[in-house]
Design brief:
The chain has 346 residues and is an alpha/beta fold. It has helices at 28-43, 55-64, 84-87, 109-112, 122-134, 168-171, 182-193, 240-252, 302-315, and strands at residues 10-16, 48-52, 72-76, 90-94, 99-104, 138-143, 157-158, 163-167, 197-201, 219-223, 226-231, 262-267, 288-290, 293-298, 320-325, 341-344. Helix content is 26%, strand content 24%. It is globular.
Length: 346
């Protein structure tokens, strides 16, 4: 049993659909446009699962934009928000038994910052649909709610070979698992995911990030030997000191074989702000790997966007690298990867 890497062959990708009772209400039409663009691109490569409070409304949203529903499955459930990365199952597989193990960790709204009572129950609502999509494979759900362990999919990276990468700012935040030490949490991760090594990033920060510093906003495995990460070249930017310290950490990390990682720096986007003038956590590191492609958030900054796309083309030479405008997503402090969750093929 192991936690696959994101480039492992996938069975499907889940999204949780926006609706008028979410924080998307002021920009709902634009948010739905963005979600539809994401679905359109994913569906070119693999099936899609959409969890929606109103499945007929979600179907209408997609049909209006001429998106074929043939490879899309819909399932109904009550939802607070749309960040599937953090409330969806985190899926392990046992290739010998062709067994799928669905880990349903406790989701508490990123440390009790936002309502999450519906989102924390989504997995129990959609379990039968997920099982049907996996077909004949043996399915087991492990509901970690009963083990009192708070954990979000955006807070972990896996190389698929036993090495995990996380940030201390998130996993050691007192609003998650405040009775557990770093050693306790590392032991939990190794147990849940049958991992051998955990790389702890001590320096990571993006202004406006509600997650306490998810790893998927700053540093991502691209292969067992390479990492893409956010780099800040501007000494006058508030991120400069912290992101340079993170870069030094990544340079010091070693693979299981004791070798340095190949690093692919992604440019920190120019500052983006909300209506109140607060900086938003725009990041190209929040990309999604799907079968044969990488979907990359862009922010209406041609030079920075193209630089990031080019770096990821180097990191993923055998995949299409596709940019998707996600300016509306960062208004709610998330981006493309945050709004999706992949399910690996057994």
């Amino acid at each position: 049993m192991f936690l696959p890497s994101e480039w492992h062959q996938q069975a499907f990708v889940q999204l949780t659909w926006p609706h008028k009772d979410t924080d998307w209400a002021p920009v709902l039409a634009d948010a739905i446009d963005c979600f539809c663009r994401i679905v359109r691109e994913i569906a070119r490569f693999e099936p899609v699962l959409i969890a929606a409070q109103d499945t007929e409304a979600a179907k209408t949203d997609l049909r209006k934009r001429n998106i074929n529903l043939t490879s899309i499955t819909f399932t109904q459930c009550s939802t607070n928000d749309t960040w599937a990365r953090d409330h969806a199952f985190i899926t392990c597989i046992d290739p010998e038994l062709q067994q799928v193990l669905l880990n349903d960790f406790q989701f508490n709204g990123w440390g009790l910052k936002f309502a999450s009572h519906h989102d924390n129950q989504i997995n129990q609502s959609i379990f039968s649909t997920v099982s049907q999509l996996y077909g004949t494979h043996r399915i087991e759900a492990r509901y970690a709610n009963h083990l009192d362990f708070v954990f979000e999919g955006g807070s972990i990276e896996s190389d698929g070979k036993g090495t995990l990468m996380v940030t201390s700012s998130c996993l050691l935040a007192k609003n998650r698992n405040n009775t557990l030490s770093q050693q306790d949490i590392e032991e939990q991760l190794k147990e849940y995911f049958n991992a051998e090594k955990v790389l702890w990033v001590q320096h990571s920060w993006l202004a406006g990030d509600d997650t306490d510093g998810h790893i998927d906003t700053v540093a991502r495995f691209c292969s067992p030997t390479s990492i893409a990460y956010v780099k800040c070249d501007n000494p006058d930017d508030e991120h400069y000191t912290e992101l340079n310290a993170m870069e030094q950490e990544l340079q010091a990390f070693r693979t299981a074989e004791g070798k340095s990682y190949t690093l692919f720096p992604l440019p920190l986007p120019d500052p983006c702000f909300d209506e109140e003038g607060n900086r938003l956590p725009a990041t190209h590191a929040n990309f999604l790997i799907v079968n044969n492609a990488v979907l990359v958030p862009t922010y209406g900054q041609p030079k920075k966007d193209e630089e990031a796309l080019n770096q990821l083309r180097k990191a993923f030479p055998n995949r299409q690298v596709i940019g998707i405008d996600c300016q509306v997503l960062i208004l709610q402090h998330g981006s493309l990867h945050c709004s999706t969750m992949q399910y690996p093929l057994a």
